[in-house]
Amino acid sequence: MNKTLLFTLMLACGISAYAQQTPPVNNARRPTRMQVGDVTTDPVVRDPCLVKEGDTYYAYHTGGGIQVWSSKDMKSWTKQPSVFSGAPEWVAQKLPAFKGLGFWAPDLSFHKGTWYLYYATSLFGTNTSVIGVATNKTLDPKSKDYKWVDGGMVVQSVLGRDAWNAIDPNLAVDENGTGWLSFGSHWNGLKLVKLNPDLKTVAEPQEWYTIASRPRDYKYNDKDPGDGALEAPFIYKKDNYYYLFLSWDSCCSGVRSTYNIRVGRAEKITGPYLDRDGKDLAKGGGTLLLGGDTTEPKTVYALGHNSVAGFDGADWMAYHTYTTDRDQHLGIRKLSWENGWPVVKK
Fold first, then answer.
1. How far apart are CA 187 and CA 228, in angstroms?
2. Which residues are catalytic?
3. In the chain, helix, strand, coil percent, each to 5?
4. Over the chain (346 residues), what is each successive 10-residue block's mean pLDDT?
5. If phi over 0 gives left and psi between -120 and 50 gives alpha, with beta otherwise, what is residue 196?
6. What would the DSSP string read from start to end of 124-139?
7. Which of 76, 212, 320, 334 is 20 to 30 A from 163 via CA?
8. Contact indicator for 323, 280 with CB cutoff of 8 Å
9. What's the N-to-C CA distance of the chain in angstroms?
10. Handedness of CA 296, 300, 305, 306 (dihedral sign)
11. How many angstroms separate the CA atoms of 252 and 144, rounded?
């Protein structure tokens, strides 16, 4: 098997088999308990991306300059330094109203000896948004090589110009080793665009695809997200298919949230992605995988914004969920595959 294909098959938040060659992290400060395969009380996370480097697992998530937890067993978790202590200068130039360190939805990929961290920031409730990228040689904050380097803006959405929203990025690599960035929330759906080999810029001529959308009432104008509630794409290559995971419905209203995880698959990374009933995700399709009263007890709410990782001989899904109105918590489940479709194990 060639290295390009191996990279593609092991993609998980962009994680590749190459990441297993990197020295592990050793840090036992302030452990926090959770249960693999069940709802967590700690750590508190939103929009988690689960990856592994060496023998250490990392959960990167929204907030506070991109926050980070590490673990040796996916049970005891240790707080690590945030990625950013200050906003890159270009963010203020593109979003003058942006303040603080409210970076969203991190996505990690390991490619040719370098970690690529994609993230978004936005003026909440609008599509005035940007996606940026930073790079690092290692995720181990104790390593002499540990340093996040700003790579600038990758994609921007502009109110009144674009009918899509540049948040919730995810990098996937096709069978030819070409990088593609998916992203999006509400408006006219989730998008996919080809990147240059540097994985930091959009390739020319630009190729844009709508990979998922839901019906949007015409009463909404361009300023409004609308009622076609979907976001957080994540593309994962397994055997002969690309699987598109995404979140539907309401994410951020505590136990009143209705978030749930859907899935479709395609033979090509550009789609079309079809659900188990053969309906195109770009036309409102999407098979329910996790979330809602059909798959969870009523003490658990709004499972969504997932990532998928392949390591330790298995595939894993990380997501967040509410148990109270206050905080979102990390959940991790093992995936199995039945007749070519993912199934969540409890």
1. 7
2. 47, 231
3. 5, 40, 50
4. 39 41 30 40 86 97 95 91 95 91 95 97 90 98 98 95 95 97 96 98 96 89 84 97 97 89 98 98 97 65 94 94 85 94 87
5. beta
6. TTSS-EEEEEEEES-S
7. 320
8. no
9. 32
10. negative
11. 38
H/E element holding 76? strand 76-80
Residues 6+ apart with CB under 8 A from 222: 159, 160, 163
Structure tokens of 310?
A: 């392949």
pTM strictly above 0.85: yes
Q: Which two tokens stand for residue 317?
A: 């899904």
d(CA 89, CA 174): 32
Residue whose entry in the numeric block shows the structure tokens 């330094």: 81
- Measured between alpha carbons, how far is 323 from 332 in angstroms, rounded to an integer? 15
Phi then psi for 91, rounded to 5 degrees? -65, -45
Residue 133, both tokens: 């990228």
Which ranges of the chain does DSSP label H, i.e. alpha helix? 3-9, 89-94
Q: Could you identify the residue written with the tokens 């009918």?
A: 163
CA 36/CA 135 separation, integer angstroms: 29
Q: Which two tokens stand for residue 292?
A: 């809602």
